[in-house]
Amino acid sequence: MSTENTILEMRGITKLFPGVKALQDVTLSVTRGEVHAICGENGAGKSTLMNVLSGVYPHGTYEGDILFENEPCEFKTIRDSEHRGIVIIHQELALSPFLSIAENIFLGNEQSTRGVIDWNKTNAEAARLLARVGLSELPDTKIKDIGIGKQQLVEIAKALSKRVKLLILDEPTAALNDEDSAHLLDLVRSLKGQGITSIIISHKLNEIAAIADRTTVIRDGKTIETLDMHGAEPVTEERIIRPMVGRSLDDRFPEREPNIGAEVLRIEDWTVHHPIDQGRKVVDGASISVRKGEVIGLAGLMGAGRTEFAMSVFGRTYGANASGKVFKDGEEIHTRTVGEAIGHGIAYATEDRKRYGLNLIEDIKRNITSAALGKLSRRGVVDREEEVLVAERYRKELNIKAPTVEALVGKLSGGNQQKVVLSKWIFADPDVLILDEPTRGIDVGAKFEIYTIINALADAGKAVIFISSELPELLGMCDRIYTLSQGRVTGQLPRAEATQESLMLLMTKEKEGTPR
Amino acid sequence: MTAVTEYLGKNVRQYGIWGALVAIVILFEILTNGLLLMPNNVASLVQQNAYVMILAIGMVMVIVAGHIDLSVGSVVAFIGGLVAIMMDKWSLPWIVAVLLGLVIGALVGAWQGYWVAYVGIPAFIVTLAGMLIFKGLAIVLVGTTIAGLPPGFNAISNGYLPNSFGFMAGRDVVTVTIGLLALLGLVYSQARARRTLRKHDLAVEPFPAFVGKLVLFALLLGYLTWLLSGSNGMPIVLIIVGVLIVAYTFVLGRTVFGRHVYAIGGNLNAAIMSGVNTRRVNFGVFVNIGVLAAVAAIVTTSRAGAAVAAAGDSYELDAIAACFIGGTAVTGGVGKVSGAMIGALIMGVLNMGLSIMSVDPSWQKAIKGLVLLLAVAFDLLNKRRAGTS
Description:
Largest sheet of chain B: 2 strands, antiparallel
Largest interface: A-B, 38 and 30 residues
Oligomer: heterodimer
Distance between the termini of chain B: 29 Å
Radius of gyration of chain B: 21 Å
CATH class of the largest domain in chain A: Alpha Beta
Structural class of chain A: alpha/beta
Order of helices and strands of chain B: HHHHHHEHEEHHHHHHEHHH
Helix content of chain B: over 70%
């Protein structure tokens, strides 16, 4: 199997965790100079495999062989694999926000003579590496002052500084907007031209279709198949999905017969300023409305202000000097605190569930009831028996996979955590549900379940505001889609008229007469 | 039996702390040639360490909410001084002085709570300032000592419940009755909680472990009752501490306010986004520990029979140590009143045992410090092994 052109060969990799077989006899063969995609549902074992490769799990804690450039590898630490030219860039970036770009690039690999840092060399080298990844920032810019897309490029520059031969990117575009994603993929292509091999783990199948030479699909800790993306038969998204889930998803979005009633929520001329840079308008005169039983979408590139819009309406949890009017059932209301917003029947399920959505060190039931404890208590005393019954009901209805409702939320998978967040807000029984990226980072099967839940909510007469970066998702789920660009509503399209192209056109519409 | 050992293995932390308490008691019982568990010593163990237990109840709430309170020792000295002045200089009845003391405690808590909750200054800074402020004020008020307090007041910490029903077989009936009631209450509440869990198919400890635990508690309570009823009877301060433990276990475990304390400590952002009024909860937590510091001040002053400017010295550290030994998480969000109480008892037994052995107070401090470090290290290693941290 191993040929002259094979840069990496992983054979019979088996990795056990207490009680779980995370990887079972996995085989992976990567050709020199290719872009090799790895696909699989969450928990399929992709990250575990990469951690085995990069030495996060040291040699001896797994079974099987790794051959890199035809030599057997026994990495004990990440440093060992980096010395060989294997660099992994994790989903959560490992940059220090208060250090400069140059300092971050050479963190742990400082350009020094006898312990004293050579700043000229550091900055000059950094500038050279930045040029290679297409960044025009000065090397002494602080990481916190550049966007996440550029931070990702700094990570790649850092990898280049280590003379990388095999670059592993774990969900590199998960947090990027389309423009930054496109730039990143271009960079991967140009690195390929320079002879650098890449392994890219991604949930975004259209990206994989666009960039990968070959794709290996992993399911339940096993290699299912490796697809040649340039073969005779074109590889479609459906073709990749089929081995991932082991079944074909003809219909990725459940059907819903819309039954739309009167207007429930209207927001007029909403403006919010940046919390620190208070002169900057993050949301600028935005107006939207949503009706009973309707699912509306908010589409926008990163930085368009979707989350900021939603959070500032939801109890001013983002930004400064918010202005504008909110009408509920035709009457003006105030939503200055989260309590007030919830009181008016508005719920916001965050895009960042670990940070804003869940108490990870508590169990399922206490998370589910945390937004509406008042419904379970009399004179300030919680009825714990009722609480268990409520939690148990949602566990069954939403199919939260956990042994009991007393399981800690921190130990659940992303999809199940998201179901806990949804349960929490469904239990609060709002009229308007704002769902911010409800399917981010969760696997295909769980996504479908979440879509079904959203449809059930709309059928029950809730008004749903659906924020998502995935246009097919909005097109498949929403009755109407608003587009945002630079904090402004640039258009709205009914489902029948919206296409990815028409939405993208509105999402990239520049402000008229702005000097920038 | 394997189910039991497996269960115990998984819950080393929960039961380990009990084991540690029992081990320390046995150790000192041997080292002091049986003096530790003499009836008089058991009573004074409670009387001398009531302050740690009372402060730890408030502190556990503060730490669970993600804060710390360094000022309680100084507040004890300050309020103790004020209460003594009220009785000594203003000749107020001691009951009135005690009630006013509690009100002042609430005001002190409100003062600190305002800065923490509404201005947003970290509690470490606010209470460090409070530590200096109230210590200074205590010295200004008290000078060195105010003595000659009314006997009714002194009885709070030194007295026993009156022997109203006489003796039966040489045992004080009042004490025996209270002991029996406590035992019945414990068995009833535990059995009820277990039944509820089972009804909903939630995890319960294996039956032998459950019974074993109850028998152990019953023996402990019975032995304590036996000891106390055979000597001076039920210390008043034990009743105060007992009521506070029951009340605050309920507040933290069963009320919306308690839930919000855990929510804030577990994930502040998520609590805000769930509509928890975090400012009000934080304010409440500090008002609460202010009141409990006042209770501790009354107990301490009563025990000494005098207000001393140097009172309350390093009490905050005893209380914080009791919480951490009792399994309260340094990062907030996790902790129980029961754990903190065992932590306080461990500290108390250490204090008592080392004093009986007439170990130099400086060495006592060093030993207590080491115990604190080991307890938290054990906790951390245990968590790491379980893969939860």
